[in-house]
Design a protein that fits this description.
The protein is α+β, with helices and mostly antiparallel strands and about 130 residues long. It folds into two domains: about 30 residues; about 90 residues, ATPase, substrate binding domain, subdomain 4 (Actin, Chain A, domain 4, Alpha-Beta Complex), CATH 3.90.640. It has a two-stranded antiparallel ribbon.
């Protein structure tokens, strides 16, 4: 066998093994206990107050009803829901009701999906109680 061909084959095998090892290491669970959580919902809401957590859950259910999409599985959309919930809770400290609007929350084959709903202080208190 030609030595040049042997060297090329060795290089190809080493590159393939490095690729496979890299894929394996990326899929392996890390030592971080938060990495084992099943959705971004769990980790992101862990440090939130009860009101904001309740509003996030309510907004996720509203988003599912309005768009049919599971927003908790989409990190970007979930972050936008989380931001909207924090803002709504803050605004409800000064107002009796707020309108929460998250345009272009997600999209599918039929086009973009928007979220718009109205939330009152009473509704938050009910959400927290349940």
């Amino acid at each position: 066998m030609n030595p040049v061909i042997a060297v090329v084959l060795i290089v190809v095998v080493v590159i393939a093994l490095a690729y496979v090892l890299g894929m394996y290491l990326r899929r392996r669970p890390s030592a971080n206990p938060l990495s084992r959580l099943t959705s971004p919902t769990d980790a992101a809401t862990a440090a939130l107050d009860r009101e904001t957590r309740a509003v996030v859950g309510w907004l996720l259910s509203q988003a599912f009803e309005q768009t049919g999409a599971h927003i908790a599985d989409d990190k970007l959309a979930y972050d936008r829901i989380l931001t909207a919930a924090k803002k709504a809770v803050q605004e409800l400290k000064a107002q009796e009701a707020v309108t929460i609007s998250v345009p272009f929350l997600t999209a599918d084959a039929s086009g973009p999906k928007h979220l718009e709903c109205r939330l009152t202080r009473e509704a938050i208190q009910e959400l927290v109680r349940s």
